[in-house]
Structures are given as structure tokens and as C-alpha cells.
Amino acid sequence: MSSTNDHESLKSRLTSLTRDMILIASTESRPEERTRCFEFLRHHLDATEGLRLDSYERNGHQSLVVRPHGCDSPDVLLCGHLDVIEHSEPDGYHSHVEDGRIYGPGSGDMKGQIAIMVELMRALHRHHPGASVGLAVTSDEERGGADGVRFLVDDVGLRCGVAIIPDGGSLCDITVEEKGVIHARITQAGREAHGARPWLGENAIERLMLRLTRLGNHFATYWPSEPIDEQVNHWFPTCSITLCETENTTVNRIPSRASAVVDIRFPPPHDVASMLEEVTEILGPGCTLETLMTAEPTHLAPDPLFSEATKEITGKDVAMVRASGGSDGRFFRDHGIPVNLSRPLVGNLHSIDEWIDIESMVTYYRICKRYITNRLSLDR
Ligand SMILES: [Zn+2]
Fold it and tell me: How far does the centroid of ligand 1 lie from the alpha carbon of residue 141, in Å?
């Protein structure tokens, strides 16, 4: 086969694998669809000789780990998640190809990347049986990764020399740092009263609003005066109010309780402890702050060989970038495992017209293949 044919057949295999997976609505509310997606992956992988497929489960979230026989801790671990976010249109889980892109929910986050990793596993283990390369696929990244990568690494004891997670950065942008995260609920108590006689009560919503305004004003002091440009001046702490609730359902009753959820992101030198202290002080006494999820800012320590392979394949300079969002990479970093975080060209993530660029999928496949063959000294 000529190399043009190789290129075209790889493109079409990656495209159909991705589009087949998009049809499976593997969201949080559909456990049976997530199971079906794992079955689909198994069928694509179990024909490759010499591979062992292990399934794990925690709190209804399945994971699949694929390794060569006799290899518990592969040197290179490809890692992804098959869960996609929920869409309001229940029959929106299909795709179309236009302008060299696959459009559809989960195409770029990250079923297209899973297709690439499955193809890589099959090709590498066919040509280099026993190569120290594994694959881990989880199903709870969009809700924090506690039952997926965290469980595999902390509880099952999965280890590797380096993890490749194609869920951040871009083709020539390798993520080196991620902000820390605090998801917390702020609850304010008050005293119920009739809406016509506010002097008899204490309005929980109004008291909470004052605290949230103080919090907003405080975080505004970190905000640069120039318009924000990613990679230029985005590296500062932020606080977003994402939920605001009261149990009150009556128009003329002053509520006795109100709560809000905040999503706080912060770079070093801040850490979870210092940030919580800061927030507690600004909120002041008389309300409670309950953390729902926390993560320290993470340095990913990518392998320099990965950026070399990226440069070799693309012929372009590689940028080391800082991400406002987090990834499953932090769970590997807790055990000192380096993480290579870049990905094909993607866009409109988490919307119905999410896309992944097909040509860049082939390029990303080649980058990973080059990196793995270099790192493991396999012949090309
Ligand atoms: Zn993702």
C-alpha cells in the first residue's frame, strides 16, 4: 500500500470509529449507554493478540484498562474518558462531516481522541507485540474523575512511566500548568417572616447577596485592567457563582435559608488552604462554607521527548501553555507521574456542534506514535 493510501485509510478508520461512538449517548444519566460504549471499545480491542482487558467499577462508573499480558505498569499509558455531557435535545447524539471536521456531541471531548488511542493500541501491539503501552478509558471525567482516574490510580494502584491525556492544550500547545479548583457551597441562615413585615425576620437571600457581592468585589481586585487574552494575562484567581438556591416557594414569605455554589480557580502561589482562608475571611462569620471538590494547582511535567516528537511531525514550534481549567492529569501528578497533555484541533466543546478536525487527528496519531517509538526505542 502506498503512503497516500495509508493516510486515507487511517483517516477513514478514525472517522468512522469516532462517528460510531458519537451515536452512543454515554452521558451521566444513561449508565446503560456508557456500558454499551465500553462494549463497543472491547470489540475493537479484543481481536488484537497479546492484550489483556480489565474492567473496574466504582459507584456505577466503569473503567477499562488495556495492557499487554504480563505488564501491570506500562511505561506509556494512553488515557481518556468516554462520558459526554448531557444535551437538552435527546436525539442530538449523531454527527456529520463538513469541511474536514466531524461535528457532533463528544467529538472533540473526547471520542475522536479515544478513536485515535484505540487505533494506536492496535497498530503498536500488532507491530511490536508486548510493547510497554497501555490504555485506560474512564467514564466520569465530566463530573470530576473521582470514580475513574482517581480510583484507578489511588485505589487500584495503576501506575505508568508517563500518561498521555489528549484532553487539553492543542496540536502544538502542550499544557504545563493547570489552575487549582475549589467548588464550594455557601449557606446562609436567616429568620422566616411574612413578606409584608420584613422587620420581624432576617432575609437569608439578602444576607447571602451581601456576602457574594463582597466576594465578587474581592476577586475583581485580581482582574487585569486590559481585556483578557488567554496565555497573556489569564493567570489570576477567579470566582464564579454557578448556583443560587432557596427552599422557599412562597412569594410573600421571607426565606430562612439560602445557598450558593461557587467555582473558584487559582494559580500558584495560592493553594487550596490559603484560598479557603481568604474566602472564609471575606465572607465573614455567620455563614457556612462547605467544600464540594478541591484540587491544587498542578504542574504537569510533560516529557521533553513529547514536544520533540510534536515538532518533528508538525514542523512547527511547540508552545508550553497554562490552562484555566483542570483535567484528570492531576491524579497522576499526585503520584509523581508526568503527563503529556495536548490534542488534535477541536472546537465548540460541550455544545451540540462540537467538532474535531480529521486531518489533525491523523497528525496527533503520528505524534503519539513517533513519541512512543522514540521513548521505547522501537523501530519505526
Ligand atoms: Zn474531556
Answer: 6
CA of 205 to the centre of ligand 1 (A): 35
Confidence of residue 232 (pLDDT cuts 50, 70, 90): confident
Distance from the alpha carbon of residue 310 to the mean position of ligand 1, in angstroms = 21
Decide: 55 and 62 in contact? Cβ < 8 Å.
yes
Cα 144 to middle of ligand 1, angstroms: 10
CA-CA distance, 197 to 203, in Å (whole number)?
11
* Ligand 1 centroid distance, CA of 29 (Å): 17
CATH class of 3-178+298-375: alpha beta
pLDDT of residue 92: 86
Query: Rounded to the nearest whole angstrom, what is the distance from the C-alpha of residue 279 to the centroid of ligand 1?
Result: 28
How far is residue 360's CA from residue 363's CA, in Å, rounded to a whole number? Answer: 5
- Say if residue 1's pLDDT is above 70: no
The fold of the 180-295 domain, in CATH, is: Alpha-Beta Plaits (3.30.70)
CA of 233 to the centre of ligand 1 (A): 24
In whole angstroms, give the CA distance from residue 173 to residue 321. 6
CA angle 70–76–82, rounded 5-degree value: 95
Cα-to-centroid distance, 256 and ligand 1 (Å)? 39
348: CA distance to ligand 1 center in Å? Answer: 13
The cell numbers describing 151, all together, are 480510583
CA of 82 to the centre of ligand 1 (A): 8
Domains in the chain: boundaries:
3-178+298-375, 180-295
- Give 107-157 pLDDT, tens digit per residue: 999 999 999 999 999 999 999 999 999 999 999 998 889 999 999 999 999
Report how far ligand 1's centroid is from the alpha carbon of 108 (Å). 8
Residue 105: pLDDT over 90: yes
Mean pLDDT of the 196-209 span: 97
The answer, yes or no, to whether residue 2 has pLDDT greater than 70, is no
Cβ contact 345:170 at 8 Å: yes
Give the pLDDT of residue 231.
81
